[in-house]
Design a protein that fits this description.
Structural class: alpha+beta
Number of strands: 7
Distance between the termini: 27 Å
Low-confidence stretches: 1-19, 29-35
Oligomer: single chain
Order of helices and strands: EEEHHEEEHEHH
């Protein structure tokens, strides 16, 4: 699979993708009149199945017409599955602690967006909105792994998106998912 994002727009900020070289996409709120920047077209997806694999966990995301799959660490897969099932751990897990910290500072998760794939590695952004008695409203776009974005978004009740340009290049894995269901595999997730 080819990369979707061009490297010539490298960003230098931690928030904008210093670690990945993937540029900032202005994925927060729509741009105000007269502001520069492009708000990309997004496809809303949901976790529809999680499947343990020998190397971790397969996560299927879908929009009702198409589904994609990528692979994540088993522990994060279990974290996503627990959140989808509405389970509350006896003590906060890492993703729970992150959300509690955000709330303590007046921030909320607005959305998670998968923005690129390069050499079979997906890249994502977590969009936060912060406003409290000390500062005015601020939108923050964080570079993050898709697995963490999904785990956090599911806990926060925030939507998950994929850039349409990327979505349209990804192989539809709906038939693979249906074959697994037909074989009676326990897929967890939103299925």
């Amino acid at each position: 699979m080819g990369k979707i994002v061009r490297k010539q727009d490298l960003s230098t900020s931690f928030l904008q993708g210093r670690f990945t070289g993937i540029p900032r996409f202005h994925l927060g709120l729509p741009r105000r009149s007269g502001e520069k920047g492009h708000v990309p077209d997004l496809v809303r997806v949901e976790p529809i199945a999680l499947l343990p694999t020998p190397a971790g966990c397969a996560v299927f995301l879908g929009d009702g017409k198409k589904s994609i799959v990528f692979y994540i660490d088993l522990a994060i897969g279990a974290s996503i599955n627990a959140a989808l099932a509405g389970e509350t751990p006896p003590r906060p897990l890492t993703h729970d602690l992150y959300l509690l910290t955000l709330e303590a500072f007046g921030a909320k998760v607005r959305r998670a967006v998968i923005v690129a794939i390069e050499k079979e590695i997906y890249y994502a952004r977590l969009i936060l909105e912060a406003e409290n008695e000390i500062m005015e409203r601020k939108i923050v776009e964080l570079d993050a792994r898709p697995s963490d974005c999904i785990a956090i978004a599911v806990r926060a009740g925030a939507p998950i998106f994929v850039l349409r340009e990327l979505w349209e290049t990804l192989e539809d894995m709906t038939s693979v998912l249906q074959d697994m269901r037909d074989k009676g595999m326990d897929l967890g997730g939103g299925a």
